[in-house]
Amino acid sequence: MLVYDGRCGFCARSVRRWQARTGQDVAYVPFQTPLPIELLGISRTRAHAAVQLVEPDGRVTSGARAVSRVLRRAPGRRLAGALLAVPPVSLVAELVYGIVARHRPVFGRIDRWLFGRSVAPSSSALAAWLFLSGLGLVHLFAFRSLRVQVLGLYGSNGVLPIRDYLEYLRLIDGRTPEERREWYRRVPTVFWIDASDRTLVAACRTGEALALVLMLGVAPRLALVGLFGLYLSFVTAGRDFMAFQWDSLLLETTLAALLVAPSALVPSAPREHPPTAAVLLLRWIAFRLHYQSGIAKLRSGDPTWRDRTACGYHFETQPLPTRTGWYVHQLPRAVTRWSTRAVLVLECAVPFLAFAPRRLRRLGFLLLSGLQGAIALTGNYGFFNLLSFVLTLSLLDDEPLRRLLPFSPPPLRARPGPIRRFVTGLASAALFGGLFYKSPPPRNGLRHPLRPSL
User: What is the pTM assigned to this prediction?
Assistant: First the structure.
């Protein structure tokens, strides 16, 4: 049982959020109640100063420790609750709790400004459904554009025939069976079985079909596995033509999407809330994409980014400018200098809003999706901008989407099942590992480990 100040607006709003997640596991009682809370060893003075949590064994905790133990009973907030109990985070949490407790009216107004009037728990079921549909559309474009080029690039008479490349790796004189197995591991592709022209076209058509299946919501997990395997097959065997940033990003996003995909086999309205750790993983990918793009500009050594003149040259020197890009290039130099500043701010500062409260996250979504729309209008980067936009959908929650989509989000489940707990743990491990992962340096002067000197 959690005893709190029922006259404190900030406390009441927080309790209503927790109550929706903890269900019957925690009883919430304002200390103004006529119940004799003194029999539980809690004085009303202590209850007014900080929340008091009474455990089933009679133990009483207060302040940040009580909040930590409540959150550990709330699906989607267990990780946060566990972190609050770990030193030195627990010491900082107690300090912050004391500051908030002494200035509750101020933080109550801040809470309403950041989260809005709604105190319903943030949910992402509709956002995940929209994200998966958008990812299916990206794959459809990717495989459709590849199908019309695949024979010219990778066919038997193409620029870089996949069959010749794999035969080279398979039949090099002096390679032992162990070394051949190493090549199979380093070049994971279904084209080891057959890399004929017919098979290459069939793989592209299969990718298009799976993309449509994902868009329709039919067996999304199976569709994502198939899409990942097919696209990985082209990326690992495609070498120069499949070694771009968006190819790696599409693979990474598809793999992360498996953690938010529902288990349904037939199309239906969203029935499952994705694990919070999986949603955070998608937001981390969106953050990393935009933030590293901005930092790379500043660290490139190009003086035009530091003196804010880069956009004065960008629109005419980019690989595939559009007709709109020509008109934008004619704008006054003051406008292009302002555009350069705006791009750096949007890519270096705005991505941090991916981890902010819901209202600031929505602002971050609008700004980052607007940036991707402006880039798509002035330059043709294939599906890259659409994929970046789809990733920013992870910043949204279901509340604004209810007004646009004819679905209602499913109710929160009080206790997740074993599969959901496994997925949550997997997503948490991927998120934690991604914070410290650093790409290995090139070896032997090669930019790509799958490009031997032919």
Answer: 0.81
